[in-house]
Amino acid sequence: MAPSSKLMMVPLLALLFMSGTLEAARASNDTSADGTDHYSRSPGANGSASAPRGRLLGSSSQSVFSLDSYGARGDGSHDDTQALARAWKAACTSPRPAVLLVPSSKRYLLKVVSLSGPCKSNVTFTVKGTLVASPNRADWSDKDRSHWIVFRSVNKLTVNGGGAIDGNGDKWWPHSCKINKALNWLLFSSALQGSSNGFVVPLLHQFEGGGSENYEQSTDPHVGRGLHQCAIERLSITAPGTSPNTDGIHITRSKDVWVTDCKIKTGDDCMSIENGTHNLHVSKVVCGPGHGISIGSLGDDNSRAEVSGITIDSVQLYGTTNGARIKTYQGGSGYARDITFQNMIMYNVKNPIIIDQNYCDKAKPCGEQRSAVQVSNVVFKNIRGTTITKDAIKMNCSKNFPCQGITLQNIDLKMQGGMGNTESTCQNAKWSKSGTVHPQPCTATN
């Protein structure tokens, strides 16, 4: 079933290096957390103020814990990391549902911080002000370079508020090997990571700068165990088209995820969908600039990949490198199947429809190998628009594992400005068509 409007966050969430701002959309039921300090201090035994305790807001069942009540300065220059940690501890141990409040009109400078559960009650992380990542590279070790704010073992966490998360990612882009070839490491620029069992609603409105929403599973305790039954909505990500490795939304090892009403401008894939993703539903996404929406890459370094049940629906792409794309390495194994790209409009896209089972982005050419990730049961339906290259449809499939069950239905892709005719190229692809398909699919399947 589709997720409800009031959802829960998952056990692990990591807010990582980002540049610019990520703004959380104001939740419809978030009328009481208005950014003011809703706290009282009760006198201690000696007449001094005791530890802050949450005052109930709007409902007798909810307590609010403000960063300012735990020593935060909010001036953008003093370190407020420990204040956040203290506020989190109080919220997490609250016997009533709690709101951890980042007050409005302030900037809270943060280094790496881990916020752990399990919590006694549901927690809502309401960001009304701005959380700012330290721009000082000395504050980030090799171990935590890809992490900033990490939630561990937390069930039923909701993120909202209309505020901003500023990750200062532009300080890191020049140090990526994709920018500086003399360097030997690639900058990770993920924004959110999550793990299992629950709903996730970042309800994030605007994010400017290099980063991605990264949901994945790993044995690495910093990464988590994948998302299940999650929703990501009303998210806007903006990064320069030249920013390195800045996938907008990156999903892997996740199941039953909904992504809707998102606007993404990046220097890499607007969405990348990788190994272990099953039953993903994407709708109403606007993409560009960027590399488009990609399933893959899959099968890297002879690995096994399994992806199924992917629906990409009602998407607009502006000036992207690719449109609807599946990419796998030779040498991999596994499958990418039951995939639908439908109701897509493309404006001046370089490769509108592309399947590439010979993908390679290595420094050295990838040698030919016999095995491959099997691509099957893929539908491209109701796709129209313009391209800047003649090859509007490309199917470059494996000789040993041909693409099976590729359906083209109601396709209309023309050259930008009417400058010539579009074409299609196919290798080792078994396809069928229905309705009007322009350009005509390949005249042969080999």
Automatic annotation (TrEMBL):
Its EC number is 3.2.1.15. The keyword Cell cycle does not apply. It is found in: Secreted, Cell wall. It is an enzyme of class 3 (hydrolase). One of its GO terms (biological process) is fruit dehiscence. SMART domains: PbH1 (SM00710). The active site is at residue 291. Residues 28-57 are annotated as: Disordered. The keyword Coiled coil does not apply. Pfam families: Glyco_hydro_28. Gene3D superfamilies: Single-stranded right-handed beta-helix, Pectin lyase-like (2.160.20.10). Residues 1-24 form the signal peptide. It comes from the Eukaryota. One of its GO terms (molecular function) is polygalacturonase activity. Keywords: Cell wall, Cell wall biogenesis/degradation, Glycosidase, Hydrolase, Secreted, Signal. Its main location: secreted. It catalyses: (1,4-alpha-D-galacturonosyl)n+m + H2O = (1,4-alpha-D-galacturonosyl)n + (1,4-alpha-D-galacturonosyl)m. Belongs to the glycosyl hydrolase 28 family. This is endo-polygalacturonase.
